[in-house]
Design brief:
Number of helices: 8
Radius of gyration: 20 Å
CATH architecture: 2-Layer Sandwich
Strand content: under 5%
CATH topology: Nucleotidyltransferase, domain 5
CATH class: Alpha Beta
Length: 200
């Protein structure tokens, strides 16, 4: 999202800081319900499908919005301007973003956070979860923290977050999990294949 708008990488912190400056309801985004590949057609699988996340659709929607509103020229101008600043400050980003861009950023963050909070709390309710622990790079997002605390509080579910310096992306968490195995020379066999649901 941030890269698409010429805001550089990593985009999460920039989006988080700029979103409060825009109108979160200026652009309407919707999320299509995900359909999992056939896995036996069990009722249990169908019941949990509604908790799956996918943001490829909203990223495409942002791209289509940018194209429809003819924002490409201003995005390229912003990209070039930021490339000439060694360490851009918030003031630099604000100066280079027009109202339409700020509204798009705010609307994107609002929609994504709303989907994450809604589906997570629905899953917590369905699983009778006693508490929630929100982790990963997204856990550093200010709106996500605030809305999770508010919504989980209404449901009476305690919610916890790591400190922001420890709210790291999945690659860092996998590396942290792999390092002790590396030290112990506990390696996978060469024929081992990727298993996304494999337990650590």
């Amino acid at each position: 999202m941030a890269k698409l708008l010429g805001l550089g990488y990593p985009g999460g912190p920039v989006i988080d800081r700029l979103a409060p400056l825009g109108d979160p309801r200026a652009v309407k985004f919707t999320f299509a319900r995900m359909k999992s590949p056939a896995r036996g057609g069990s009722q249990e699988r169908e019941a949990t499908d509604r908790f799956d996340f996918s943001f490829s659709g909203i990223k495409t929607a942002v791209l289509r919005y940018v194209e429809a509103q003819n924002m490409q020229a201003s995005i390229e101008q912003r990209r070039r301007a930021l490339a000439g600043i060694a360490t851009p400050a918030l003031e630099d980003y604000v100066r280079l973003c027009d109202r339409e861009t700020l509204n798009l950023i705010a609307s994107f963050q609002h929609a994504v956070v709303g989907d994450l909070v809604s589906k997570t709390l629905s899953a917590a309710d369905a699983c009778n979860s006693a508490s929630l622990f929100i982790t990963g790079g997204v856990a550093a997002n200010s709106e996500l923290r605030a809305r999770f605390e508010e919504a989980a509080g209404r449901q009476g579910i305690p919610v916890a977050f790591p400190s922001r310096p420890l709210s790291t992306d999945n690659a860092a968490m996998i590396a942290a999990a792999a390092y002790p195995k590396f030290l112990a020379a506990d390696f996978a066999a060469p024929e081992f294949s990727a298993e996304p649901a494999l337990a650590l």
